[in-house]
Amino acid sequence: KHPFEVNASGHLEIGGIDAMELAQKYGTPLYVYDVGIIRRNARAFVETFERLGAKAQVAYASKAFSAVAMVEVAKQEKLSLDVVSEGELYTAIQAGFPTEKIHLHGNNKSRAELEMAIEKEIGCIVVDNFYDIELIGEILEKEDKQIDVLMRVTPGIESKTHKYIMTGNEDSKFGFNLANGQADQGFNLLHNHTRIRFKGIHCHIGSQIFETDRFVVAVDALFKQLEKWKEAHGFVPEVLNLGGGFGIRYTSNDEPLPYEHYVESIYAEVVKQSEKLDIPVPEIWIEPGRSIVGNAAITLYTIGSFKDIPGIREYVSIDGGMSDNLRPALYEAKYEAVIADRPEAKQEKTVSIAGKCCESGDMLIWDLPVPEINPGDILAVFATGAYGYSMANNYNRFGRPAVVFAENGKEKLVIKRETYEDVVKNDLSYLS
Ligand code: LLP
Hints:
Layout: E1 5-6, E2 12-14, E3 17-18, H1 19-26, E4 30-34, H2 35-52, E5 56-61, H3 68-76, E6 80-83, H4 86-94, E7 102-104, H5 111-119, E8 124-127, H6 130-143, E9 147-154, E10 176-177, H7 182-191, E11 196-202, H8 212-233, E12 239-241, H9 259-277, E13 283-286, H10 290-293, E14 297-309, E15 313-318, H11 327-331, E16 337-339, E17 349-354, E18 363-370, E19 378-382, E20 402-407, E21 410-415, H12 420-424
Parallel strand pairs: 4-20, 5-6, 5-13, 6-7, 7-8, 8-9, 9-10, 9-11, 11-12, 12-13, 15-17
Antiparallel strand pairs: 1-2, 2-3, 4-14, 14-15, 14-19, 16-19, 17-18, 20-21
The structure holds ligand LLP.
């Protein structure tokens, strides 16, 4: 089930703190992370590689939740960091993250982004397309620098997931396609580049994947390509990056595997294929985002209005919605939730939880079983730690919620709630 306890008062507890107290103290909507769970998730990946004796980097995909406090925890847990923008890179630098462990992604990296990455001497740039290679080359020349680079390839692997979060299939905006020779062309540019140190290849086959064999298939696809490059050019990769995408439990329909299994399967296949190709086992990098932070947070909302349509449905509205969690509206993502002061109360009926945005599609949860509920009750939605706050927005001019980190009975506000002054701070009058 969800990794949270019920305390002596029968209330939901997170990081050792009563969810009702948190709602009272910080207001709602409120994101609360149990930092202990983040650490546990991170360690499952890191320690499995260690146990196997594999050279590896576990790069937290900060797009899932980027914030100074989160980057600090990633640093403590000896993670590397995957950033996809100047904003995420800036956040990492603000948090004092070691730049040599930062990897930059993006299918349209701007000159400014690349300049910042090169100036800060980050650990690696993952090139996504020909324009990337050209720009990086130009900047390195101008700055008289060198940098490590991986090539992102698109292996043409379909993963069973929502089409908006499919990324490894052939018809994708990301990476160099393996099938049509693009990757070979990219290789020719990178391999003998005077300033780019070409270290190996990257692929990300999609998100919320539950089967280890998808990753095994990805490893095989990469090695098929590597075999060509070894034969033709004697290329031996130092790094193989398998991306992220490890699935988590949102609802009882999701049955994720322990993260150790993914690491073990990937490692075993990389070892096997390396032996076959007669090369040293390359360093393995992965980029988990959701699987590090997803199940570590809950969102607390206050229940407000009710609308009963007898025989059809009862709508129960909360004080947030698609402005703090876009995933149900964007991907029809499903969530589970409880009433925070009686999570184990007998369920009496089924209601549908509506957000407060002016949009019919702003439905957080359809058909949620609940006990008797009233306005003022606190609803706790599980598994909102990934792509929740990071995709929050100001639709209807709602301010983004606050974020609290809790661990071992202590809590700390790590992102302040946006005020209305914040919401209008970039507005300028037309008339004065
Ligand atoms: N690496 C690369 C290159 C990626 O494109 C992604 C996700 C990740 C790593 C991390 O994937 P994760 O381990 O978090 O599944 N907003 C969507 C997810 C978009 C993911 C895009 N790329 C959602 O809310 O489900």
